[in-house]
Amino acid sequence: MITIRTEQEMMDLVLNVASTDERIRAVGMEGSRTNPNVPNDIFQDYDIVYFVNDMQSFIENPEWVDVFGKRIIMQTPENSELFPPELDGNFSYLMLFTDGNRIDLTICPITYIDKWVTLDKLVKVLLDKDGLIPTLPDPTDRNYWVKKPSQKSFEDCCNEFWWVSTYVAKGLWRNEILYAHDHLQLVRKMLLQMIEWKVGVETNFSVSIGKNGKYLDRYLDDKTWYELLKTYPTAETNEIWKALQMMTALFDEVSLEVANQSQFNYPPFDTSIVKAYLEHVSHLPADAKEIY
Questions:
Q1: 227, 246 in Cβ contact below 8 A?
Q2: DSSP line for 72-112
Q3: Which of 27, 47, 46, 30 is nearest to 110 (CA)?
Q4: Is 146-282 the same fold as 7-143?
């Protein structure tokens, strides 16, 4: 039987390891566990930062992380060739344990502290042996609030949405399902951007919709949420066409709302021509020799 460690046990472990290792001089925490607007759940990671005075000694001895428990799997992104590292010389251990707990642990040189305290407002100091970290304000997700668009950003979003929609149509006529699906994701990205701005307008740009829009359902009416879900089709041609049609209708509706509230021009160009093109291609015979 698996013994599941409690939140208190996990935090005690993180701090005990740091307290007994002289190389670790300070400990910080990031992510959802510092965000007062995110409810706790069983899948929340422990995003921990160890500030150390001998980085290389940790990296050269990868077994040192065994102290945190038996793992299901671990990833060390900075060792990856396929996905190049992005942590400014820091080193991370992403660990999923057999009891379901997960620690995303990053070790950083002490000199990184000055940068760390300015990168994000969702940080909390757990241990500071030498008084290296200044007093920080209470964590806030303000950095992740929806940002107000400019007229140009709004127009660019509209243009990208309608332009890429024609690629989806082309792929569907050719029966290139993977091509069509791939471009459908790009179209949806612009739809989600517009919906994000809608939420921003309605909340005075004072909320975060979370990574990958995971909190969008909190802020959308049932109709909009249901229509958005219907834009996720199967790999069947007819279903992708339906999804594209739902996207164009929803984008039109949401864009008009954002434009009216922001005093933007919508549509910034004649979208009716694009809609007519998409409709035409959707009925174009598979053996057609000309588009028109």
A1: yes
A2: EEEE-GGG-SSS---STT-EEEEEEETTS-EEEEEEEEGGG
A3: 27
A4: no
CATH number for 7-143: choose from 3.30.460.10, 3.30.70.330, 3.20.20.70, 1.20.1290.10.
Answer: 3.30.460.10
Say whether pLDDT at 222 is over 90.
yes
| Domain 146-282, CATH number (from 3.40.50.720, 1.20.120.330, 3.90.950.10, 3.40.50.1820) | 1.20.120.330
Taking the mean position of all CA atoms in its chain, how far away is CA 192? 12
Q: Cα–Cα distance between 134 and 114 in angstroms, integer?
A: 9
Q: What is the pTM of this model?
A: 0.89
Closest CA to 93 of 109, 82, 79, 110: 79
CB 171 within 8 A of CB 177: yes
Q: pLDDT tens, 223-274?
A: 999 999 999 999 899 999 999 999 999 999 999 999 999 999 888 888 999 9
